[in-house]
Amino acid sequence: MEITIKCPHCESADNPPNARFCINCRGQLFQVCPSCLSELPWHFENCPKCGVNIDKYREKTKLAETEKKDNELEAYQRELSQVQNDLQFVQSPPLSAYISTYSKSQKRFRDLGKTSIWGCGMGVFDLIIVYPAIVLFVSMILMVMLRPGIEAILYFLAFTALLGGIMWFRFNTFIRKPALEKLKTREIELQKAIRDLTEV
């Protein structure tokens, strides 16, 4: 009498002894040891090669994967919360961030955007535009002090507005925009990672 293998999926007993897949349902006729990855018959409870109990090892591995998944999810959620707090800060920057290169708030912006003064082109902009404008601004202050009058005050106010516009452009172009882009990109990445973990 020819020995056949019973399929664990459809219970067909017509499979030859060397078959790896069921001829009826095409289901797999063997199991893989989760420890040493050896192919074993379905009815084996222990692996003859590495000695592990297959069901217990799978349960242990499943618990470890669940714990790893929970830790990853917690870490992603914690980072997402920080990123969203940083986004609120970037979207409503304090006045000091616009004005001073060395203020804590502007340094935080550069850290969030991972930009350096020279690496993003801001240093060249400062040399060509900002520093000469500051020198002229100081000159305007001296002019108002030495030759006070309506005309000098109007020049001073106009140049103050111009300098404010320059600093606003400098901050938004070289500092705020990179930080905003990086944070929004990271927020999308984290939201996708959390969604993938919770949907599994």
Poorly predicted ranges: none
Please report which band the strand proportion falls in: under 5%, 5-15%, 15-25%, 25-35%, 35-45% or over 45%.
under 5%
- Estimate the helix proportion, in percent: 55-70%
> What would you call the shape?
rod-shaped
The beta-strand count equals 2
Q: What's the rounded overall pLDDT mean?
A: 85
Model description:
The chain has 200 residues and is mostly helical. 64% of the residues lie in helices and 3% in strands. The protein has 5 helices and 2 strands, in the order E-E-H-H-H-H-H. It has helices spanning 54-91, 95-99, 104-113, 122-146, 150-199, and strands at residues 30-32, 39-41. It has a two-stranded antiparallel ribbon. Strand 1 and strand 2 form a beta hairpin. Helix 3 (104-113) crosses helix 5. The two termini are 47 Å apart.
Sequence-ordered SSE layout with sheet pairings:
Layout: E1 30-32, E2 39-41, H1 54-91, H2 95-99, H3 104-113, H4 122-146, H5 150-199
Antiparallel strand pairs: 1-2
Short structural summary:
The protein is mostly helical and 200 residues long.
Core attributes:
single chain, 200 residues, mainly alpha, two-stranded antiparallel sheet, 5 helices, 2 strands, 64% helix, rod-shaped
